[in-house]
Write a structure and sequence with these properties.
The chain is 0% helix and 39% strand. The protein has 250 residues and is mostly beta strands. It has a 5-stranded mixed beta sheet, with no helix packed on it. Strands 8-10-15-13-12 form a 5-stranded mixed beta sheet, with no helix packed on it. A hairpin with a 4-residue loop joins strand 4 and strand 5.
Amino acid sequence: MAHLDWLKVFIILAVFSLTATLSEGFVASSSNYILQSDTINFGGNYSTSSSYKLQDTLMEVGTGMYASSTIILNSGYQAMPLDIYLAITSPSDLTMSPITNGVGVSDGSSSLQVQTDNPAGYELAVRADTSPALISSGDSFTDYVSSFSTPDYSWNTPDSESRFGFSAEGDDLVSSFLDNGVSCGVGSQDHSGACWVGFSTTNQVVARASLPNYPVGASTTIKFRAEVGFNKLQTEGDYQSNITVTVIAL
Protein backbone atom coordinates (compact mmCIF):
# COMPACT_ATOMS: atom_id res chain seq x y z
CA MET A 1 0.00 0.00 0.00
CA ALA A 2 1.13 3.58 -0.62
CA HIS A 3 2.62 5.72 2.12
CA LEU A 4 1.89 9.44 1.82
CA ASP A 5 5.04 10.84 3.38
CA TRP A 6 4.00 14.41 4.07
CA LEU A 7 1.00 16.62 3.63
CA LYS A 8 2.18 20.21 3.76
CA VAL A 9 0.16 23.41 3.72
CA PHE A 10 2.08 26.62 3.03
CA ILE A 11 0.17 29.62 4.34
CA ILE A 12 0.74 32.95 2.60
CA LEU A 13 -0.57 36.18 4.09
CA ALA A 14 -1.90 39.11 2.07
CA VAL A 15 -2.99 42.23 3.96
CA PHE A 16 -4.69 45.08 2.11
CA SER A 17 -5.89 48.54 3.17
CA LEU A 18 -3.05 48.79 5.66
CA THR A 19 -2.00 52.43 5.70
CA ALA A 20 -0.21 53.13 8.95
CA THR A 21 0.20 51.90 12.49
CA LEU A 22 -0.74 54.06 15.47
CA SER A 23 2.80 54.10 16.81
CA GLU A 24 3.23 57.87 16.72
CA GLY A 25 1.35 61.10 16.18
CA PHE A 26 -1.46 60.38 18.65
CA VAL A 27 -2.73 62.92 21.18
CA ALA A 28 -3.56 60.69 24.14
CA SER A 29 -3.17 57.07 25.18
CA SER A 30 -3.31 54.60 28.04
CA SER A 31 -2.80 50.85 28.45
CA ASN A 32 -6.31 50.34 27.00
CA TYR A 33 -6.59 52.84 24.12
CA ILE A 34 -4.84 55.16 21.68
CA LEU A 35 -6.59 58.39 20.68
CA GLN A 36 -5.07 59.50 17.40
CA SER A 37 -6.81 62.86 16.95
CA ASP A 38 -9.43 64.98 18.67
CA THR A 39 -11.77 67.85 17.74
CA ILE A 40 -13.84 70.48 19.54
CA ASN A 41 -17.58 70.01 18.91
CA PHE A 42 -20.71 69.08 20.81
CA GLY A 43 -21.96 66.01 18.98
CA GLY A 44 -21.69 63.50 16.22
CA ASN A 45 -22.45 59.95 15.30
CA TYR A 46 -21.50 56.98 13.13
CA SER A 47 -24.42 55.64 11.06
CA THR A 48 -24.74 52.75 8.62
CA SER A 49 -27.35 51.00 6.51
CA SER A 50 -27.28 48.50 3.66
CA SER A 51 -26.52 51.33 1.23
CA TYR A 52 -24.38 53.93 3.07
CA LYS A 53 -21.93 54.70 5.88
CA LEU A 54 -21.97 58.16 7.48
CA GLN A 55 -19.70 59.86 10.02
CA ASP A 56 -20.90 63.29 11.12
CA THR A 57 -20.06 66.07 13.60
CA LEU A 58 -22.06 69.02 14.91
CA MET A 59 -20.87 72.61 15.29
CA GLU A 60 -17.20 71.92 14.72
CA VAL A 61 -15.14 75.12 14.45
CA GLY A 62 -12.06 75.94 12.40
CA THR A 63 -12.63 73.45 9.60
CA GLY A 64 -11.53 73.46 6.00
CA MET A 65 -8.41 73.39 3.84
CA TYR A 66 -5.70 76.01 4.29
CA ALA A 67 -2.58 76.26 2.14
CA SER A 68 0.48 78.46 1.82
CA SER A 69 3.86 78.14 0.16
CA THR A 70 5.07 76.04 3.10
CA ILE A 71 2.06 74.10 4.48
CA ILE A 72 -1.15 72.33 3.49
CA LEU A 73 -3.63 71.92 6.34
CA ASN A 74 -6.81 69.86 6.33
CA SER A 75 -8.46 70.85 9.59
CA GLY A 76 -11.54 69.34 11.14
CA TYR A 77 -12.76 65.82 11.75
CA GLN A 78 -14.14 65.13 8.27
CA ALA A 79 -11.18 66.74 6.50
CA MET A 80 -8.65 64.80 8.56
CA PRO A 81 -7.10 61.83 6.72
CA LEU A 82 -7.73 58.72 8.80
CA ASP A 83 -4.98 56.15 9.20
CA ILE A 84 -6.47 52.69 9.56
CA TYR A 85 -4.59 50.14 11.64
CA LEU A 86 -4.91 46.60 10.30
CA ALA A 87 -2.67 43.76 11.48
CA ILE A 88 -2.65 39.97 11.26
CA THR A 89 -0.41 37.44 12.95
CA SER A 90 1.73 35.28 10.68
CA PRO A 91 1.15 31.54 11.22
CA SER A 92 3.90 29.08 10.44
CA ASP A 93 3.70 26.69 7.50
CA LEU A 94 1.79 23.59 8.54
CA THR A 95 3.03 20.01 8.15
CA MET A 96 0.18 17.54 8.52
CA SER A 97 0.70 13.97 9.72
CA PRO A 98 1.46 11.23 7.15
CA ILE A 99 -1.26 8.84 5.99
CA THR A 100 0.16 5.34 6.41
CA ASN A 101 -0.79 2.25 4.42
CA GLY A 102 -2.45 4.46 1.81
CA VAL A 103 -5.77 4.82 3.69
CA GLY A 104 -6.84 7.19 6.44
CA VAL A 105 -7.21 10.78 7.61
CA SER A 106 -4.68 13.56 8.18
CA ASP A 107 -5.62 16.67 10.19
CA GLY A 108 -3.95 19.97 10.91
CA SER A 109 -4.88 23.49 11.95
CA SER A 110 -3.50 27.01 11.85
CA SER A 111 -4.68 29.98 13.93
CA LEU A 112 -4.30 33.69 13.34
CA GLN A 113 -5.48 36.93 14.92
CA VAL A 114 -6.69 40.13 13.26
CA GLN A 115 -6.56 43.56 14.91
CA THR A 116 -8.06 46.71 13.43
CA ASP A 117 -9.32 50.07 14.60
CA ASN A 118 -11.32 50.54 11.40
CA PRO A 119 -14.85 51.70 12.36
CA ALA A 120 -16.35 49.44 9.66
CA GLY A 121 -14.38 46.34 10.69
CA TYR A 122 -12.59 43.80 8.50
CA GLU A 123 -13.01 40.76 6.28
CA LEU A 124 -10.85 37.61 6.15
CA ALA A 125 -10.77 35.22 3.19
CA VAL A 126 -8.78 32.17 2.06
CA ARG A 127 -7.96 30.76 -1.35
CA ALA A 128 -5.77 28.07 -2.88
CA ASP A 129 -3.11 28.80 -5.48
CA THR A 130 -3.97 25.69 -7.51
CA SER A 131 -6.99 23.58 -8.41
CA PRO A 132 -6.99 20.96 -6.97
CA ALA A 133 -5.47 22.54 -3.87
CA LEU A 134 -3.45 19.57 -2.55
CA ILE A 135 -1.09 18.16 -5.18
CA SER A 136 2.10 16.17 -5.71
CA SER A 137 4.28 15.78 -8.79
CA GLY A 138 2.09 12.95 -10.10
CA ASP A 139 -1.25 12.99 -8.29
CA SER A 140 -3.69 15.11 -6.28
CA PHE A 141 -6.52 15.07 -3.77
CA THR A 142 -9.97 16.10 -4.97
CA ASP A 143 -11.16 19.39 -3.48
CA TYR A 144 -13.90 18.59 -0.97
CA VAL A 145 -17.37 18.76 -2.52
CA SER A 146 -20.21 19.79 -0.19
CA SER A 147 -23.47 17.91 -0.47
CA PHE A 148 -25.43 21.18 -0.20
CA SER A 149 -24.98 24.85 -1.09
CA THR A 150 -23.47 25.37 2.37
CA PRO A 151 -20.56 23.54 4.03
CA ASP A 152 -21.22 19.97 5.21
CA TYR A 153 -21.73 19.69 8.96
CA SER A 154 -19.87 16.35 8.99
CA TRP A 155 -16.86 15.40 6.88
CA ASN A 156 -17.50 12.68 4.31
CA THR A 157 -15.19 10.92 1.84
CA PRO A 158 -16.52 8.15 -0.43
CA ASP A 159 -14.47 4.94 -0.36
CA SER A 160 -13.35 5.46 -3.96
CA GLU A 161 -12.07 9.07 -3.51
CA SER A 162 -9.41 11.13 -1.77
CA ARG A 163 -10.46 14.57 -0.53
CA PHE A 164 -8.89 17.74 0.89
CA GLY A 165 -10.84 20.55 2.52
CA PHE A 166 -11.17 22.89 5.48
CA SER A 167 -13.45 24.23 8.18
CA ALA A 168 -13.25 27.49 10.13
CA GLU A 169 -13.72 28.33 13.80
CA GLY A 170 -13.40 31.66 15.56
CA ASP A 171 -14.82 34.93 16.83
CA ASP A 172 -16.27 36.48 13.67
CA LEU A 173 -17.33 33.59 11.42
CA VAL A 174 -19.63 34.33 8.50
CA SER A 175 -23.01 32.60 8.64
CA SER A 176 -22.06 29.71 6.32
CA PHE A 177 -19.59 28.40 8.94
CA LEU A 178 -22.08 28.68 11.81
CA ASP A 179 -24.41 25.80 12.64
CA ASN A 180 -27.32 24.60 14.73
CA GLY A 181 -25.75 21.30 15.71
CA VAL A 182 -27.07 19.54 12.60
CA SER A 183 -26.59 21.79 9.57
CA CYS A 184 -24.31 24.66 8.55
CA GLY A 185 -25.44 28.04 7.29
CA VAL A 186 -28.16 28.13 9.96
CA GLY A 187 -28.05 28.90 13.67
CA SER A 188 -25.38 30.74 15.60
CA GLN A 189 -23.23 27.97 17.07
CA ASP A 190 -19.62 27.13 16.28
CA HIS A 191 -19.13 23.43 16.95
CA SER A 192 -15.57 22.14 16.72
CA GLY A 193 -14.85 20.01 13.66
CA ALA A 194 -18.04 21.03 11.85
CA CYS A 195 -18.82 22.77 8.53
CA TRP A 196 -16.43 21.43 5.88
CA VAL A 197 -15.89 22.79 2.39
CA GLY A 198 -13.30 22.56 -0.38
CA PHE A 199 -10.78 25.25 -1.31
CA SER A 200 -11.17 27.42 -4.39
CA THR A 201 -8.75 29.58 -6.38
CA THR A 202 -11.05 32.54 -5.68
CA ASN A 203 -11.39 34.11 -2.23
CA GLN A 204 -13.78 32.40 0.18
CA VAL A 205 -14.77 34.69 3.06
CA VAL A 206 -14.63 32.91 6.42
CA ALA A 207 -14.75 35.80 8.93
CA ARG A 208 -16.21 39.30 8.92
CA ALA A 209 -16.84 42.00 11.53
CA SER A 210 -18.53 45.39 11.22
CA LEU A 211 -16.87 46.99 14.26
CA PRO A 212 -13.29 47.73 15.34
CA ASN A 213 -11.61 45.22 17.68
CA TYR A 214 -8.35 46.97 18.58
CA PRO A 215 -6.47 46.21 20.79
CA VAL A 216 -8.08 42.88 21.79
CA GLY A 217 -8.32 41.47 18.25
CA ALA A 218 -10.27 38.49 16.93
CA SER A 219 -9.06 34.93 16.35
CA THR A 220 -9.79 32.56 13.48
CA THR A 221 -8.64 28.94 13.19
CA ILE A 222 -8.53 27.16 9.84
CA LYS A 223 -8.72 23.37 10.19
CA PHE A 224 -7.37 21.28 7.30
CA ARG A 225 -8.26 17.68 6.56
CA ALA A 226 -7.15 15.18 3.93
CA GLU A 227 -8.53 11.66 3.61
CA VAL A 228 -7.95 8.67 1.33
CA GLY A 229 -10.93 6.35 0.96
CA PHE A 230 -10.64 2.62 1.57
CA ASN A 231 -10.88 1.70 -2.13
CA LYS A 232 -8.84 4.62 -3.47
CA LEU A 233 -5.35 3.90 -4.83
CA GLN A 234 -3.49 7.13 -4.02
CA THR A 235 -0.01 7.65 -5.47
CA GLU A 236 2.76 7.64 -2.88
CA GLY A 237 4.61 10.91 -2.44
CA ASP A 238 4.77 14.38 -0.88
CA TYR A 239 1.63 16.46 -1.27
CA GLN A 240 1.61 20.24 -0.86
CA SER A 241 -0.84 23.12 -0.96
CA ASN A 242 -0.31 26.90 -0.99
CA ILE A 243 -3.11 28.72 0.83
CA THR A 244 -3.35 32.52 0.78
CA VAL A 245 -5.09 34.35 3.64
CA THR A 246 -6.29 37.85 2.73
CA VAL A 247 -7.47 40.48 5.21
CA ILE A 248 -9.02 43.80 4.16
CA ALA A 249 -10.45 46.77 6.06
CA LEU A 250 -14.08 47.32 5.08
